Predict the 3D structure of the following.
Amino acid sequence: MRIAQPPLVLLAFGAVDEKLALVRATPPLAPIVSYRRNRYSTDVTCLHLKPDGNLLVGFGDWSLNGGKVPILEVDSKTGEVRSQSEPLRTENISIIKDTSGGLVVPYTDPTANTHEDTPAGRKWRIFARQKPDGSWEESGDFKQAIHAFDAVELDGELFFCGSIYPGYAAIFTPGGNTTAGKIVASEQEQGDYHRFYRFYPHTEKSVRVYNPGTGRAYIFDGNDLTPDETGWAPSNGALYCPSTGYQLFIGPLNWRIYTPEGVLFWDAPAPVSHIPTAFTCAPAGKTLWVGHKDGSLSCYYMERR
């Protein structure tokens, strides 16, 4: 996981590092058509590139509450699509995150049966973790329903950000088999859309969060939220890749990826035919994967011009 990156201030970048021709490497793949239960549930909401080059795909629509969804895996060489997990008890998989304990999937919108009644009270599972054998197990022990949108490790401790009932943007620890989760920090102002959707890079020991409901940004160091007085806010109009910190802008003439090291431009091969919803890339291999609202995947490779 990359959290030791400088802030993504787009105006700070200089000249273009490379100009590359963008070439479609494969026909569009439609990996989730067979899982479609309605016309909204095919949105690709996250992509995660594995070390072997295969792609993990998350999808769903948590505003529709369409039920449990699995993680899918796409073989980058053959295009074969298979379920990588059993359906998880979340309406949407919005991020797949690397941690020291393996991949984790925060439960963006836990399904109605995600809680368990125990002698100690009701326990809500709020994320899934991949075990060494490749299977997935639910984890977390939280005492109330929450939305968990993103995860980050600071000094070896796992934190989630999202919102807690009845509408507070918050950061919390998930708890586990022997410890209960707890709220670490939260805003005091309540609202229907008061949420921290992402952890953004800041320093090696801190991250940024932003609440669009209040328009406020904070720095989180593992203990407290400190107001960010620099005027920083996430960039509008860009797709953000949490696993790399890259941002993708798609314009009528070119595609731009902003990285902490510089900017990459590509000539667009054709007008965008589907609405892009998620992306990931392997810069060393010059490979770009884009997910779309219709459930399809586009794979591109780049050639130097």
Summary: The two ends are 31 Å apart (CA to CA). Residues 106 and 127 are 4 Å apart (CA to CA). The domain at 10-304 is CATH 2.120.10 (Neuraminidase). Confidence is low (pLDDT under 50) at residues 1-17.
